[in-house]
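ingest -> validate -> predict -> emit
validate: passed (alphabet ok, no gaps, 421 aa)
predict: started
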Amino acid sequence: MASNPPITDQGPLLTADGTPLKVSLQRSLRQNRNRAMLLVLPPLLFLVLLFVIPIGDMLLRSVDDKLVNEVLPRTFDAFEEWDKQSEPPEELFAALFEDLKAAEKVERGKVSVRMNYAKPGWRSLVKKTSRRLKRMDGPPYKEQFIKIDERWADQEFWLSLGIMKDRYTAGYYWNAVDRTYDFDKNVILQDENRRVYNLLWWRTILVSFIVTIACLLLAYPVSYLLATLPMRISNLLMICVLMPFWTSLLVRIVAWMIMLQQNGVVNDTLVWAGLLGEENRLAMMYNFNGTIIVMTQILLPFMILPIFSVMKTIPPSYMKAAQNLGATPTMAFIRVYMPQTIPGVGAGCILVFIVAIGYYITPELVGGKDGRLIGNMVAHHMQRSLNWGLAAAMGTILLIMILLLYWIYDKIVGIDNMKMG
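emit:
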């Protein structure tokens, strides 16, 4: 039960200005609550505008397929009435003529691009036909369409409309894993010459895993050295670790390109030392190996900093106590020291893996055709092919993979145990 304010012979207690104490307390709590809301509002708006809304838009684009339905409604009505076995009927050509004639030029261009994703050739076919719509002198339209381009008689083009008949589709997600729909919306494999994405997914995961392990193997001893050396030397070495952050990423990549090419610094040094023959120079550029080497160097500080920050908090007395109890230095390090660094190791591994799995610029510049990752295909569809639906589906799959990684880490180590410092 709520307690009533104390009551004296003169009535309820009052503040100095004559306001009842209960009312004054409620007013003060309300002001504090409003002040807290004002403090939280800017970061909340930042989160919504730059995180929630873009992700929501990406999720919507990955399933949105309304464009063709809105611009070609009569065509899809006629398509549903067609038996899909015989030749396309006159009604289908007439419906397409009416839709193309009613559509704006910009709409026809956008529709032709979307149709080209389902069946290569649609874009040129629609553009070519659209330029001659005004010359058509009425029905029958079938012969006039075929006269403009013989591909209008190809049943495969008309059947591909079935892929786009729904306003919302999972087709982009199937495309992202080398699958597609047939005209009856059955999932089938892409043509062999279009199966590229599964290879890129496996390569992306493999590169991210290798880079994460390589960064961990290199960062752990460096972090231990930074954590155990005297402060003066440790600070000097930390400057060396942080120095890449003060240099443009593009400059660092170009420097690696100069060093790793077949006539570069690394190969010249190996040849000069007699470790390689002139004809056996290593191919370390524009391939898988170049991507691994450059990404490892670029992401190494992201692994060192979390591990170092955790190691710095481990008292040296723990190791001494373990050795006093009979453990060898190696056993004390493995049984006492290493388990305490797992939170930093976990934070570094997650950070490096997440950055690596979506990396774009390094594989684009040094990867060549054997080192390109899924991030490069996302950029390609956003900038060149303009297939934003497929790019959004790939981005959503990457997001799901990252969330799955967090879930696995939480089950094995626990997110509460992850430390960045």
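The chain has 19 helices and four strands.
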